[in-house]
Amino acid sequence: MADKDVPDCLRWNCSEVADWIDTLGYSQYRSCFLDNFINGKKLILVDCSHLPLLGINDWSHMKEIAGGVRELLGVEESTFDRSISLPREEPLGLFLEQKSFSGPKTDSLSYETFRLKKDFAMNKLDPYIQYNERSSLSGKS
After folding, report:
1. Are 38 and 14 in contact (CB under 8 A)?
2. What is the pLDDT of residue 80?
């Protein structure tokens, strides 16, 4: 059963990813994606830092392909004023990072289940939320 909140491209095979690269106008990189077995799940990890490892070294091409991947996945580009040491904030981006792994547990993970688990974990582990819950219970703010 398909998860309606998950981009369809996650289910693409290597040939479908290569076809998508063609639609971007970069047919010269088709073999880079096929030779490295980049399917929809692995596409999640494709950004400007990984494209040279696939054999794509033209900076303008790298920016356009990485932007296309972000658009395809529906995730935003990180802002330059955000520290890279901070964890991702957007739930979809966090979910996609989880889906980039393989195995039965990851394959069966739905976006809805992930959000419920994340919300539960955040409410139990986030000291700010715990502090505010205790403050509201004691009447302090």
Report:
1. yes
2. 59
